[in-house]
TrEMBL record:
Pfam families: Cytidylate_kin2, Response_reg. This is Response regulatory domain-containing protein. It comes from the Bacteria. Residues 233-260 form a coiled coil. CDD domains: REC_YesN-like. SMART domains: REC. Keywords: Coiled coil, Phosphoprotein, Two-component regulatory system. The modification 4-aspartylphosphate is found at residue 333. It comes from Pseudodesulfovibrio sediminis. Residues 284-398 form the Response regulatory domain.
Length: 405
């Protein structure tokens, strides 16, 4: 049977339309949450880290950690397994854009309404005032724009070229919108064929390769045809032949791959430089220090060693950042205005026990050191610190983080 993927705008009555389709077809609903859970089981990443891939705002550490790209790779594999193993499925949400566009028996649907209709639905169903509803819609649309930009390289998530059927729910009504989708399931163009099943197999192989590459710190576009895999490099590379050779060696070992071809894509000549993630090196280090010149210089020196870091200048900013973008290692000063370093350490180890905290201070006493180590600090260092000593301490802290999974 054909598969349905349904992408939608917030407050476009997608849930009601989808329920009518499910009732009329006996299809099974697959949500973002189910694919996220499957991807987490496959990868060992937390569901929270996987789900953050749907958010427009990338982690401040992502240039080094490649966390979003890794999450997307595992989401693709989780969806590929669903497509291989089952039929009569309706995928609803962000995951609708994960499959290859080349799978013919997927009916690609977009459910969207005009803004006035979306605002009216928000007021009628949730009691939201127009201003609040508009804010929620804007935030959700922002996430969807960036998601589709990352996956399909277009700024318009509602573009007709992305779908077989764009349904204006507000204008058509819920019942007619559902009927349109059910009617299109009979279209010969979306029926399962040997060719379309082979396309799913190609998608599965490409997804497998994608996760293997992501696990090695690489981020390239992957496509497959039979046993042949094509890799497309879309960022500038200083030593292209070396990278191509490394990629080919990795991919050629994947079960089911018999040939590998690499080439550069349209983004290759842009200024963005290809960066391989090195998971043995700390990539999510938060520096917390009110001495701005010192901490900015320290951040630059760590980045020269390929360690990803972000900087905040007081304890309150550090605690606020961790609510939405949790680091793995923190370098923390003790003497800061407002919330001091000892209190930050206490709260961090209470709320985020897996974060490894390295105290780096120029004013701490022996009593301070004892308190910090009792609270769970990983190390206690004094300024000025030898950058090699700090680097080795960071690597040791990172090893402890990684060992806890």
């Amino acid at each position: 049977m054909s598969v349905i993927t349904a992408f939608n705008g917030l407050f476009s009555e997608a849930g009601v339309v989808i329920k009518r389709v499910l009732d009329a077809t006996d299809y099974r609903l697959i949500t973002d949450q189910e694919i996220v859970a499957d991807a987490a089981k496959l990868s060992g990443m937390s569901e929270g880290k996987i789900a953050r891939a749907f958010q427009a705002k990338a982690s401040v550490f992502n240039a080094f950690s490649h966390e979003k790209e890794r999450a997307i790779a595992w989401l693709r594999l989780a969806m590929a397994h669903k497509l291989i193993d089952q039929d009569k499925l309706l995928f609803s949400g962000f995951v609708a854009h994960l499959p290859s566009v080349n799978i013919d028996h997927i009916l690609k649907v977009c459910l969207i309404s005009e803004m006035k209709d979306r605002l009216a639905v928000a007021e009628r169903t949730e009691g939201y005032a127009e201003k609040h509803a508009a804010k929620l819609i804007h935030k959700d649309d922002e996430d969807r724009v960036m998601w589709v930009k990352n996956l399909k390289d277009t700024d318009d998530p509602w573009a007709g070229s992305l779908y077989d059927l764009v349904v204006p729910v507000g204008a058509s009504g819920v019942e007619q919108s559902a009927d349109l989708i059910v009617e299109q399931l009979a279209n010969a163009a979306v029926q399962v064929t040997d060719a379309s099943q082979a396309q799913v197999a190609d998608f599965l192989l490409a997804a497998k390769v994608g996760t293997v590459l992501a696990g090695e710190g690489h981020n390239v576009l992957v496509s497959a045809s039979g046993t042949a895999v094509t890799l497309t490099i879309n960022k500038h590379v200083l030593m292209l032949e070396r990278l191509e050779r490394e990629l080919s060696e990795i991919v050629s070992k994947v079960d089911g791959v018999e040939s590998v071809e690499t080439h550069v894509g349209k983004g290759f000549h842009q200024t963005d430089i290809y960066r391989k993630a090195d998971f043995d090196i700390p990539s999510k280090v938060l520096l917390v220090d009110d001495e701005r010149e010192f901490v900015q210089t320290l951040s630059e020196r760590l980045m020269m060693r390929d360690m990803g870091s972000a900087v905040v200048y007081d304890g309150e900013a550090a605690l606020n950042l961790m609510q939405e973008d949790e680091p793995e290692v923190m370098i923390l000063d003790l003497k800061m205005p407002g919330i001091d370093g000892i209190e930050v350490l206490r709260r961090v180890k209470n709320d985020y026990p897996n974060i490894q905290v390295i105290i780096l201070t120029g004013h701490g006493s022996e009593k301070d050191r004892e308190i910090c180590m009792e609270l769970g600090a990983f190390a206690y260092l004094h300024k000025p610190v030898d950058i090699d000593v700090l680097s080795e301490t960071l690597k040791a802290a990172n090893e402890k983080v990684q060992s806890k999974g």
